[in-house]
């Protein structure tokens, strides 16, 4: 087995690509990973990424594609007013996806990617009043910084955007859409995906614990705060050449199971 080099792998994944092309590759990868880890919902839910540059554009999947069909070159470019800038497949964009993602990209320029899911575990937690409970190490990554947005029906009313971003706030990157699903956001696609991967596990564990009927072993609030800060420190320590090592590991997985995302 050849020696694994993070730098060499980055070069292989992003060979002489422009900044926008890199974003496209990462976004398509996130779609394939959501499918691989069984977090998709048929052709529904959506992931978007801001197009680098001065224009207020973002990328999203062609409406009607399964996540495993998404390719970097076929992503839809759309502006914040809903105007399609580029649509190689002539399939348009999910109207509810536009409402939710245009709200995020218009209000939070620090966030380059937004990811939304409807999973059994995620919708289950979104349907409870308690939200995420601090009952294990995984859940403490989300001890702070989680917003909630009240359910208003399918997100087709553009007036909901203002309320959604007000509920998200100016700093949080995780939001529970009440009675609906989950959202994570990141300074890049890799951060948004890894947050969702971890959040999904937390929801699964919580539902399993509650279903067991056993008494929950409580964690002292000071330890909860400590562990939350440790998660933030680990995220900073885990960067290699600007990429998080966990994201690079996921890309190496895709090279084996679904390499078409780069096309």
TrEMBL record:
Domain of life of the native organism: Bacteria
Family designation: Belongs to the aldolase class II family.
Ranges where the Class II aldolase/adducin N-terminal domain occurs: 25-207
InterPro entries on file: Aldolase-II_Adducin_sf (IPR051017), Aldolase_II/adducin_N (IPR001303), Aldolase_II/adducin_N_sf (IPR036409)
Organism: Marinomonas colpomeniae
Pfam families the record matches: Aldolase_II
The protein's name in its UniProt record: Class II aldolase/adducin family protein
Family matches, as NCBIfam families: PRK07044.1
């Amino acid at each position: 087995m050849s020696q694994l080099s993070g730098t060499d792998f980055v070069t292989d994944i992003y060979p002489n690509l422009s900044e926008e092309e890199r974003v496209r590759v990462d976004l398509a990868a996130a779609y394939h990973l959501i499918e691989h880890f069984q977090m998709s919902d048929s052709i529904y839910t959506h992931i978007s990424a801001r197009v680098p540059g001065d224009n207020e554009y973002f990328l999203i999947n062609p409406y009607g594609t399964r996540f495993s069909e998404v390719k970097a070159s076929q992503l839809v470019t759309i502006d914040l007013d809903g105007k399609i800038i580029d649509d190689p497949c002539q399939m348009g964009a999910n109207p509810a996806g536009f409402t939710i993602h245009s709200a995020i990209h218009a209000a939070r320029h620090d966030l380059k990617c937004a990811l939304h899911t409807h999973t059994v575990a995620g919708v289950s937690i979104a349907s409870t009043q308690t939200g995420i409970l601090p009952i294990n190490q995984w859940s403490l990554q989300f001890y702070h910084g989680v917003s909630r947005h009240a359910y208003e029906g399918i997100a087709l009313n553009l007036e909901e955007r203002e309320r959604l971003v007000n509920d998200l706030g100016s700093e949080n990157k995780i939001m529970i859409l009440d009675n609906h699903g989950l959202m994570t956001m990141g300074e890049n696609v890799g951060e948004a995906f890894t947050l969702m991967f971890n959040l999904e596990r937390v929801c699964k564990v919580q539902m399993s614990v509650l279903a067991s009927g056993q008494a929950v072993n409580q964690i002292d609030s000071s330890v909860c705060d400590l562990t939350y800060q440790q998660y933030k420190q680990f995220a900073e320590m885990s960067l290699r050449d600007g990429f998080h090592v966990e994201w690079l590991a996921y890309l190496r997985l895709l090279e084996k199971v679904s390499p078409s995302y780069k096309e």
